[in-house]
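It would be a great kindness if you could assist me with a short task in structural biology. A protein sequence and the structure tokens that stand for its backbone fold form the material at issue. I should value your view on which stretches of the chain appear to form regular backbone elements. The record follows directly beneath this note.
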Amino acid sequence: MKNWYKRVVFFSSIILFGPLSNFGSSKEAAINFKDRVLPLLEEYCYDCHGEGANKGDFAMDELIALGDFSKHSKKWERVWKNIYNRNMPPANVPQPFDPEISKILSWIEETSFEHDPSKYDPGHVVLRRLNRIEYQNTVQDIFKIKIDAKDYFPADDTGYGFDTISEVLTLSPLLMEKYLNMAEIVMEKALGPIDDQGQTYRFASNQLKGGGAHSGMRVLASKGSLTLPFTSLKEGKYLAKVRATASLGGNEFARMIVTVNGIQIADFSVDAQYPDKKEYAFEFSTKPNFKNQIALTFPNDFWDPKNKDPNRRDRNLFVDSVVITSPEGLSQSVKTTREHLLGKWKTEEIGDKEVKVSFQKWLPRIYRLPLEPSEFSRHVSLYERMKQNGMNPLESLRQTYKAALVSPTFIFREEKKLKEATSTKMRMLDEHALAHRMSYFLWSSVPDFQLWDLATKGKLRANLKKEVKRMIESPKIDQFVKNFCGQWLQLRDLNLANPNPKQFPLFTQNVRSSMVLETEEFFKHLLVENLPLDFLLSADFSIINQELAKYYGIAGDFDDEFQKVVFRGDDLRKRGGILTHGSILTITSNPTRTSPVKRGKWVLDNLLAAPPRDPPPGVTELEEPHDSELKKLTFREQMAMHSKNPTCYSCHASMDNIGYALDNFNAVGEWRDQEEGKSIDVSGQLSSGERFNGVRELQSFLYENKIQAINRSLTQKLLIYGLGRGLTYKDRIAVDEIISVEKQGKIKLADLIFNVIASKPFQFSQ
């Protein structure tokens, strides 16, 4: 029976303190709450969280009775998140309809967050630095060169799970210095040397890796090697000179063996005696844009402290510098990129006309917005000043483009071209800004000419669906798959996983790489084919190669190429859906064993956007058992003992049971039926009563009962990744609109991408 007096208490508090003023008068607020919201809370929440029930130490009626909702916004935020993510009410009880959920959420937003839903706020367009992948792809697409940003830039920080977030993409003085150096490298690759003579590269001793420092040189005081990475820009034979010296020990000179890419090139007796230096020359051939590894090895160390001649007691090798000269003439790659930028490649044929045409074509691509006449004139003036200083047109061009590459307008993404505000005070992004946002969202790079031309003609929005489809079908979509999935699904973490090699000998580097590609290719297939989102869990197929087929024990004809495989029979019992992917199973395990906790937490975090609470202070991870009797227990039995602690159990109940359903897979994703000679118990039951047995039933439960939460979670992740900012309660309306666009049937992945791009936060700014 309902406790009517409790209602009187919190109704009185509401009227007395007036927390619902956003609805109008306090009397009106109380009536609206009584008529619109209270019946829903009573029907769906109070059995567990009201009128004497406080499951999870939470009583909603007592919270309401406190009044002053904005003062207790943190607690109401907890309620809001659980309802919004469809974590509450639990799946085994009657569920509210979407309009009912919207009423509750709106009431919380208006009273606790003081949000006015009638004034839609799409959020601000944020200023954000190009991350290293975006920088790499941008310069590659503009200048038609190849670079690997990981060789030049540190890893970017992440926020909200992604490295596209404005607030973490800061610019330090050290990083600015790297951008300055990178501008030089980019233009060197794109334009090559000013003349066609061989170019000389000088490497000081501190650029060599290995050994120790001594008097401005690198010294090998014992057997070992000094290494030097060198990227050759063109094909041909390179001349290298090593300036070195040695201390004489015993009756031999110090030897210096030179290898390039693992192949021995020369073997020198270093007859120069310390401190005198001498050059030792050798040649090697290489390919264009190739990362060469040069090694200088000292194989004949000698140490005899009792030698009568103190000058012959210690044999060491000292290297002062390395100078490398490229062959004469331009490489074919430089000829190609010069023609790409200038229409010609011969230095003597490049003049003012070619340079200005190049500026008109490429500067708008570099800055990602149409160039105003004054901006164009400013770049031409810089070019003219370089010529006045004695530079030829090609070198003047190089310096002007270098200046553009270190401009804040290039380094930072500015989506600032906005139309006049609408009646709702929203401003629509200019079509060039929209093209920019779309391109970096799906391609992590600058818009191509088709996007740019449509934006210039003002026809991009009119062709939006067609263009999104074209972009998804483009090979460039691999960038979205790799970068988004790598962070959303945590695939990048697989490189950090360190399974015990003795315990899991079949887990090789090739298997590791194939696991990542399986999940990426699977997601790409869902996207390009526009398949329903529930296929993430319900798919009866995967995309695998010979390496993974053998590893998973899948019979059939396979090769090194990845192909779609539809599972049948016992294979279908074991594989299908991302929760059976070796990548996911390995990153959610420990080096020697599975982790139901990590696996359950991964599902809650990444699929349902319902992360569990952090463990209380003093709670440690379950350690490896040392007692011989404990070692005989299955890991589930050990976990059961660990979770007897009530503090632990409250958090582990959901995580562990989800993880147990995946326990047929070991720590590296291999299938197993037994552990410690016992059949593995893969049954699970959530605190809300739902039961499942094994991975297939878990996946069925998730897509049958939690698909809306998964849809919402993925939509949120896509918006965060694309907008470069975290979401707030103000974005709820937009998220709901995105996932409700598809009135008929299930939401499909490519359609969801289009809905995100067509949404108000993506298209408008406050």
